[in-house]
Amino acid sequence: xxxxxxxxxxxxxxxxxxxxxxxxxxxxxxxxxxxxxxxxxxxxxxxxxxxxxxxxxxxxxxxxxxxxxxxxxxxxxxxxxxxxxxxxxxxxxxxxxxxxxxxxxxxxxxxxxxxxxxxxxxxxxxxxxxxxxxxxxxxxxxxxxxxxxxxxxxxxxxxxxxxxxxxxxxxxxxxxxxxxxxxxxxxxxxxxxxxxxxxxxxxxxxxxxxxxxxxxxxxxxxxxxxxxxxxxxxxxxxxxxxxxxxxxxxxxxxxxxxxxxxxxxxxxxxxxxxxxxxxxxxxxxxxxxxxxxxxxxxxxxxxxxxx
Length: 307
Description:
Elements: H1 2-5, H2 7-52, H3 54-63, H4 65-85, E1 88-90, E2 101-105, H5 112-125, E3 129-132, H6 144-149, E4 152-153, H7 157-165, E5 169-172, H8 176-182, H9 196-204, E6 208-214, H10 216-219, E7 220-222, H11 227-236, E8 243-245, E9 252-255, H12 267-285, H13 292-297
Parallel strand pairs: 1-9, 2-5, 2-6, 3-4, 3-5
Antiparallel strand pairs: 6-9, 7-8
């Protein structure tokens, strides 16, 4: 019966398992416990980021529930950016304290840098920047409340113009999902012939502020350069290209000089001017091609690109 049931072999397997457990348990304790302590330390730092702003948060919650919620989430995102990416933002003074402006940015595989930027706008400027997102994001279950609270719209030109005429900031990435999935470590701008954002700026008579984040494609990368995923997107508009990463590389967001409203510029000319401004930020601040290891080392030593 024991032979038929294989109990003899089972005992051998259990003996081997017991031996492996005996060998590797000390190793697990030696390596896992310090790792857990590091996580606890980072969580403590995140808590301190929130605690540092406790008075601001208390005041925000007293004024409006969603203002308090926005500031709390902004504080958490700001803490995450500081801890995981050593996030810095240069040129925040170019974002107006009052009045409208259109922010145009390069789209990473995951635009986590844009989330950090939104958090900084809330915390430093006390403003909520409206954002344009792709339609598919509105179909993700559970996202509706988040998109509403942070004033995310799906991008009809009329709605964008209305937001700007009402005095809000608005963020747009002309490359959108295509740039997120199919750009690579050489940082090409995949805007095609898109100029709707420029027409929005003209109709609203607002300045355009270019923005780019150094190493954003080293934090997360996409396999969209593989032909199959590009075919699926072009055929069915399904953004199914796998994204990998989450590497703790150095992120620095650079805001360029505002491009003022000029009644003599049409949408085509303005779109080209804005694209050149974003490309100029890439040329100034990003080493091409991007390199993950180099971006990791920049957490400890920043070597600024020569202008």
